[in-house]
Design brief:
This protein has 15 helices and 13 strands. It is of the alpha/beta class. The chain is globular, with a radius of gyration of 22 Å. The two termini are 30 Å apart.
């Protein structure tokens, strides 16, 4: 394998679970440049290793100049249909499908008319709402793709360095596959700025037909600066000096473009929804370039990284409230139930340690409770059963 690539094995395994199941279209959603196209290349390589022939594969990157002429459903149908047999094994890969108007019609038609195994990618989660559900209700598998996990990043950029040193780079520059700290700070900042412009202007400004880009930039900076802070539409509007309805529209567009993620807050006793959710960035490097690489908020960045990792591991993630106390993350998965996580950059001071442990101690159930922190050493357990783990080891799956 090219030394500059890392195999996205977790996503490949998900795709392989549904290989040749032509009852479902596989939909890979994720922010622009997180590695969706490379994932398809890696998956196609695996297929060829299983003796799938080149002429049994149709691969189209719809953002390539090669396919500039394909603008709508009719253009796509005219190009695809002559190449796909009605019977027998065939694989179709349609990359960045959202740029083709009416694409969902041909996805549905191909399922009806052929036995093809279909995979599509997109940079906008809106694909999974109205357009797709109308035509393909119950007939697609959604896979959310994120930039590199720290485990993947360590494999790609570690170079036998100290784990914590590699993690400092990851916190600062994020996990987009193309961002290599070894190229130097100036080069990395330039690449991150280019990436920021690409995701914000192509997937938010262009799609949302936004004319006041200065206002949008102001909101993005506000949201990125305030990752992990409770945020209502009202206080975002007041503090950013942007009309509330405009704030709501921009937030929806940023979420649809997979740039920010919302974690709702719930009362752990009554399950009532709190009106002030928290927001997190899809990538800490993208966040940092937008607000000038602040040096004093590593705690927020660490919390952001843990939130994304829980999503990668298949959890639904919310924030828990218990009276005036808060649990950073309530992570739930149908197969294993619930887990509680507190995230703190360090717990050296007894006051800090007590602050992190108290909300977990208030919860009287038997689900696992964990504090994740830097430089924790070997995992330990408090007298009331709360685990304290080193976050770097946890991210590398070396925390047992």
């Amino acid at each position: 394998m090219d030394k500059k690539l890392v195999e996205r094995s977790g996503y490949l395994e998900k795709l392989e679970m549904f290989r040749d199941d032509t009852n479902f279209i596989k939909v890979i959603m994720g922010v622009r440049r997180c590695g969706k196209s490379t994932l398809l290349d890696q998956y196609i390589k695996r297929l060829k290793g299983l003796n799938v022939r080149e002429d049994e594969i149709l691969r189209m990157n719809l953002e390539s100049a090669e396919f500039d002429h394909i603008e709508d459903y009719h253009d796509l149908k005219e190009y695809v249909y002559p190449k796909v047999p009605k019977n027998g094994r065939f694989y179709i890969f349609l990359d960045e499908i959202q740029r083709v108007k009416g694409w969902e019609k041909i996805a549905n038609a191909l399922m009806v008319d052929t036995e093809a195994d279909i995979y599509i990618t997109g940079s906008n989660s809106q694909l999974l709402s109205t357009e797709l559900s109308t035509y393909l209700t119950g007939r697609y598998i959604s896979i959310r793709m994120l930039p590199l996990s720290f485990k993947e990043y360590h494999e790609l950029r570690g170079n036998k360095r100290d784990d914590n040193e590699v993690f400092e780079d990851y916190m600062k520059y994020g996990g987009f596959p193309a961002i290599d700290p070894a190229s130097g700070e100036t080069s990395v900042a330039s690449m991150l700025q280019d990436l920021y412009n690409s995701v914000v202007y192509q997937d938010v400004v262009s799609r949302g037909n936004i004319r006041n880009t200065g206002e949008l930039e102001r909101l993005v900076k506000y949201m990125m600066f305030n990752i992990g802070n409770p945020s209502s539409l009202r206080n975002i509007s007041e503090e950013s000096s942007i009309n509330r309805s405009t704030v709501e529209r921009y937030l929806n567009l940023l979420e649809e473009a997979c740039i920010i993620y919302k974690a709702n807050r719930f009362d752990l006793r009554s399950t009532a929804l709190n009106p002030t959710p928290k927001y997190y960035s899809v990538d800490t490097g993208l966040r940092n370039i937008s607000i000038g690489f602040p040096s004093a908020d590593k705690g927020r960045i660490l919390e952001n990284i843990v939130y994304l990792e829980l999503l990668r591991r298949g959890y639904s993630v919310t924030v828990g409230k218990w009276d005036s106390k808060e649990v950073d993350f309530v992570a739930e998965k149908p197969t294993i139930g619930r887990e509680y996580f507190q995230v703190c950059y360090n717990v050296y001071l007894e006051e800090t340690r007590d602050r992190e442990l108290t909300p977990l101690r208030l919860i009287q159930d038997n689900f696992p409770k964990t504090v994740l922190t830097m430089n924790a050493g070997r995992p330990s357990v408090t007298k009331d059963g709360i685990q304290v783990k080193d976050v770097v080891r946890w991210l590398l799956n070396e925390d047992e």
